[in-house]
Design brief:
214 residues; single chain; 7-stranded mixed beta sheet; alpha/beta
Length: 214
């Protein structure tokens, strides 16, 4: 087993109980429900894990289409299993890596995502594992004009640092995220208040809007 696979098992071993808990999923769903989002949208969920954000978006925006991907096949298998159970048919789950996006793979086909095609791009607990500036710059190209990038990151606080522990990822400050947005041409940035105090202890949410297509 490679180092990356070991980190993956450790990460989900530590967070698995929390991410799978009903209270956590409800907290994240409540946050998604609090966002001012329009229906009939195209949404990209980057590093979707088991689909927690995608499922919340599906329930809030039933006429929107969601494309969600994660690099770990095990996570996508869990997500598609939940999808079948709850009949959430407007989400397409794929296996794919941030570095090789827009190439995505499912069990029966390969697709290439089109540039400038999403109204919203979500990244929940993802940017801590990759190059922040490079990743935000890359995915901002897939936003429509007035589209929004919404990062739900790990907070620079005691709870976030405890979660980090021995795992190989970097917690970004609010200033780092805002700077990366600006460098990627995203403006109208906004820090969103997380009403759930349990979620607020270790997560932070910041949006950036693409005002002009470049």
């Amino acid at each position: 087993m490679g180092e990356a696979s070991l980190r993956h098992k450790l990460f989900y071993g530590v967070l698995g109980g929390l991410i799978s808990s009903r209270r956590y999923r409800q907290s994240l769903a409540d946050f998604v429900n609090s966002l001012d989002l329009k229906d009939n949208s195209r949404i990209l969920d980057v590093g979707c894990g088991i689909g927690t954000v995608s499922f919340a978006l599906h329930r809030k925006l039933p006429y929107s289409s969601i494309l969600a991907f994660d690099k770990f096949r095990s996570q996508i298998k869990r997500a598609t299993r939940y999808q079948r159970i709850y009949c959430l048919d407007r989400i397409d789950f794929y296996v794919g890596d941030i570095d090789t996006f827009p190439q995505l793979v499912s069990l029966d086909k390969k697709i290439w995502a089109k540039a400038e095609s999403y109204d919203y791009i979500f990244a929940s607990g993802v940017l801590e594992h990759v190059d922040l500036d490079k990743t935000i710059a890359k995915f901002s190209k897939y936003l429509k004009e007035d589209g929004k990038f919404i990062d739900i990151g790990i907070k620079e606080a005691l709870a976030g640092k405890l979660i980090k522990g021995p795992m190989d990822f970097k917690i970004h400050s609010e200033e780092d995220i805002l700077r990366a947005y600006i460098l990627a041409g995203l403006d109208s940035t906004e820090k969103i208040t997380l009403e759930d105090k349990r979620l607020e202890r270790f997560r932070i949410a910041i949006t950036g809007k693409k005002s002009k297509v470049t």
